[in-house]
Amino acid sequence: MAQNISPSRHPAHQPVVITLDGPAGSGKSAVAHQLARYLGFQHLDTGAMYRAVTLDAIERGITQNPQAMASRVGELNLDFDWNRQPAHILLNGRDVSEAIRTPEVTRLTYVSADNTAVRTVLVDCQRRIAEKTGRIVTEGRDQGTIVFPDAICKFYLDADIDVRADRRINELAKKGVLVTKIKMVEELKNRDAQDKSRAIGGLAVASGAIIVDTTLLTPKQVVEELARHAAEKIAEAAGAADAVKP
To answer: What CATH number has the domain spanning 16-159+202-216?
Structure first.
């Protein structure tokens, strides 16, 4: 049930943004969606946006042509169907929520994430979505560091790599994809190194972010902890705004 603990807008008439960053398998996707529902916010899955751009590049055969991808991204219309829970991503009006989750797209998403022009366009798009929705929980790798450095509340979720691997294995198993524990741990280590060394939008703990270790916590416990911190931050911001009123 939505708690509606927040004002419709930040005291400075900016959107109320809560960011969740962290490595793959830290639990941020499921938690971000549940937290958004709990607070009565929208949930923005920024990873889906990079996957959608990658899907388009695959379909056009330009994944190995950064210049072509840079030119193409400006022609794409990326939007979300907010009437679906979780929101479905639309690529030029086409629902690609399932198509972007294939192993091929996962393997090649780096071509979008590492493309400066693509990232610039998507960062701008994410900020416009926040302005449009007014209240949003957004998750990714660079939300608190690059996209929304002034967010009212920033979180960095992490977990032991063995636990992260188990979570990813379970997610894939539900889709009929079987992966060994050894292979998944190796994949996560490689992905962590790639994400942290990325020249732009690299994975890092944002200034002022609250670090939450989800290793021993259930999704419900994580949501409750994040909601408590978010409520405190929102109350602080509202109080600060009242203090400066004439």
So the answer is: 3.40.50.300
